[in-house]
Amino acid sequence: MSAAPFPFHVTVVGDGDLSGCHAVRREVFVVEQDIPEPEEMDAYDAHAVHLLATASDGRPVGTVRFLYGPAALRKYARAGIDGRTAVLGRLAVGRAARGTGLGAALVRAVEAEARRLGLTGVYLEAQTHALGFYERLGYTASGPEFDEGSGIPHRAMRAAL
């Protein structure tokens, strides 16, 4: 039996309206994955493009952010990205919306917004349990596993736009 459709709407949100994004990230990363909140809500939030998914009742159910330009180059210089690469991060889907296709919709929304900005690729550091999810969306893993500071193993992944 397949799950009933889960209606959601994804929008780009401004820096002054991150409460919904932070609520989902707090639920997923701080509560479920035990990542310290000061580490999760970092200074790069001010330089990122944020997308928020809301349910039909307006409740925040998913979020993602991406960096590009100088902020991305500062944070991810070790990854060898260039100024035309979006760096996808902080993808979080609340428990009630998992398995609905929302995660894929958020990745595709990042790709669409990155294209609109003239970017040519996406780089991300995926938790290793999520590699298959990103591979199904066309991303390719490279390099060894690493700990990006949370104690959760990650791998670098890329896709061209």
Structure description:
The chain is an alpha+beta fold and 161 residues long. The protein has one domain (8-160): Gcn5-related N-acetyltransferase (GNAT) (Aminopeptidase). The chain is 29% helix and 33% strand. It has five helices and seven strands; from the N terminus they run βααββαβαβαββ. It has helices at 19-32, 37-40, 70-76, 102-116, 131-136, and strands at 8-13, 49-55, 60-67, 85-93, 121-127, 140-147, 153-160. A seven-stranded mixed beta sheet has the order 1-2-3-4-5-7-6. Strand 4 (85-93), helix 4 (102-116) and strand 5 form a beta-alpha-beta unit. The N and C termini lie far apart (34 Å).
Write the layout of secondary structure elements.
Layout: E1 8-13, H1 19-32, H2 37-40, E2 49-55, E3 60-67, H3 70-76, E4 85-93, H4 102-116, E5 121-127, H5 131-136, E6 140-147, E7 153-160
Parallel strand pairs: 4-5
Antiparallel strand pairs: 1-2, 2-3, 3-4, 5-7, 6-7
List the keywords.
5 helices, 7-stranded mixed β-sheet, globular, alpha+beta, Aminopeptidase, GNAT family N-acetyltransferase, 161 residues, Acyl_CoA_acyltransferase
Q: In CATH, what is the class?
A: Alpha Beta
Strand order of the largest sheet: 1-2-3-4-5-7-6
Number of strands: 7
CATH topology name, in short, is Aminopeptidase
How would you classify the helix and strand content by structural class? alpha+beta
One letter per element, helices H and strands E, the order comes to EHHEEHEHEHEE
* Oligomeric category: single chain
